[in-house]
Amino acid sequence: MDLHELEAIAEREQAQRARFRILCCAAAGCQASGSLEIKRRLELVLSAAGKQADVDVVPVGCMGLCGHGPLVRLEPTGKVFERVTPADAEELVAALDQGSCNVQQCNLNHPFFTRQYPIVLRHSGRINPERIEDYIAAGGYRMLYHVIHDLTPAEVIQMITRSGLRGRGGAGYPTGLKWATVAKSPGERKFVICNADEGDPGAFMDRSVLESDPHLVLEGMAIAAYAVGAEQGFIYVRGEYPLAIERLQKAIVQARRLGLLGAQIFESGFNFRVDIRVGAGAFVCGEETALIASIEGRRGQPRPRPPYPAESGLWGMPTLINNVETFANISAIIEHGPEWFRQIGTEQSKGTKVFALTGKIRNTGLIEVPMGITLREIVEDIGDGTPDGTPVKAVQTGGPSGGCIPASLFDTPVDYESLAAVGSIMGSGGMVVMDEHTNMVDVARFYMEFCKDESCGKCIPCRVGTVQLFNLLTKLRNGQAGESDLQTIEALCELMRETSLCGLGQSAPNPVLSTLHYFRHEYEQLIGAEVDHGG
Q: Which end of the chain offers a freer environment for a tag, N or C, measured as fewer CB atoms within 10 Å?
């Protein structure tokens, strides 16, 4: 495979496309709502009308507005229809010629669409994720060719460093610095790992990217491997994501077949193989050292650091670990340049962030917004408030490791430093909206129960602390706690933060501490109270 062959595939794909295209969302959410039956029905209607040669019905990835699915887009008009049913197929086909129909249409002028800035999601909902030709026609793998033939590994690392990209897995560590550390670390072999062990309640960003655009992640991994000197990559993905795994497997096979993965990529001396490792659903395996242990076939438990994986990771070799969204940014940075990326976002948080917007919100779905946008803009403009107009009470960011931010602080910019300043974190991108009917003690108890169940049990502060905090919160919720129990809760939280081995235990108290800080009156109201939990 060379550049001319790549361009020929793109040209052939464009030439073979029908004049009209009907794009049906085939991501997991819309599939659960019957989108594959809609696709089948559209194909039957087109066949009966003798129009199958003029119209392509294409299964695509997530279109974003998940709570309004199934979604269907008509091209070239660009109109998007929501809550489509198989019975709407005839009207949608007729709309290709007539330009209008009675099927409910999305308002593409709504802030949900206009306020987004798609970089990671630029192909999502527009290409068939199961056909490498679609990705190539959209410009795919050209940046991999460019870095292999036109740039040195050091120049690639310098570009990523200058871009200001920070790891999108939650910690926000500078990506270029991590790459540089792996590149200069001595070792017989080096590895690249994509962390797709997304486990936060309410989070589905990485799953959607893998389902919608798997080649974007593979290309980012290959560029990273070239930069750091690795020849083997692994994607560690949750077993609960069968569709993402299936599409990744297909993508890897297709890329190998075209010589875009494997040996002598683009007729160069660069070799890179990617394999999938399926996790068993342990939340703690999202932590780097636990993930590495799992890939090695050991129990997924963290180990003390240093040494860090960049110096001694998989099988003791230098290992680069980035998450799905981080790798998905790479080709765009190479294509448009680091200065382009630096112009998006804030001084210390560059680029965009993908969020799974869920909870008590009208526009549930996947969004990609510039860093620095405020919580208010996301909740009130993009999310369009609560479904029944009830005032929003708080937003929880960062999953079990994050905090609950009250509505009074919704003018807080969404970036790493600002969220940390109000007691939360960016996290991998979960964003759960709560209305005034939400009891914040219940929220804290829910997340503590999650952390209790997901603790690996290796260190005492996390193993015992999560259980004790859950029991104390349960005691409080049942109206059996006193003021001293609140003091014990706070002391336990600080103990866990300071002494737990890994990020799970260190951050597990965050939902408790943030709700205690901003909604302490809800805790105090439960002291000695008889609580009616309803029928």
A: C
Instruction: At 254, list the tokens.
Output: 């297709």
Q: Terminal CA-to-CA distance of the chain, rounded, Å?
A: 65
Rounded (10°) angle between helices 35-48 and 89-98: 60
Helices and strands, number each (H, E), in the chain: 23, 13
Task: Please report, as a single letter, which amino acid is at residue 256.
Answer: R
Q: How far apart are CA 195 and CA 99, in angstroms?
A: 44
Would you tell me the crossing angle of helices 483-499 and 510-518 to the nearest 10 degrees? 140
Residue at 399: amino acid letter: G
- Distance (Å, rounded) from C-alpha 301 to C-alpha 404? 28
For 120, 156, 173, 174, 338, the CA distances from 161, given in Å and listed in that order, are: 18, 9, 11, 7, 8
Write out pLDDT tens, residues 412-455.
999 999 999 999 998 888 999 999 999 999 999 999 999 999 99
Per DSSP, the three-state class of 20 is strand
Beta bridge partners of 234: 193, 275
Tokens of 331: 């080709």
Other CB atoms closer than 10 Å to residue 348's CB: what's the count? 14
- How many other CB atoms sit within 10 Å of the CB of residue 9? 19
Handedness of CA 492, 498, 504, 505 (dihedral sign): negative
pLDDT digits (tens, 9 = 90+) for 222-237: 999 999 999 999 999 9
152-191 b/e with 16+ CB inside 10 Å = b? ebeebbbbbbbbbbbbbbbbbeebbebbbbbbebebeebb
Question: 70 near 37, Cβ under 8 Å?
Answer: no
pTM given for the model? 0.95
Domains and CATH numbers, the chain: 18-110 (3.40.30.10), 140-341 (3.40.50.11540), 352-435 (3.10.20.600), 441-524 (1.20.1440.230)
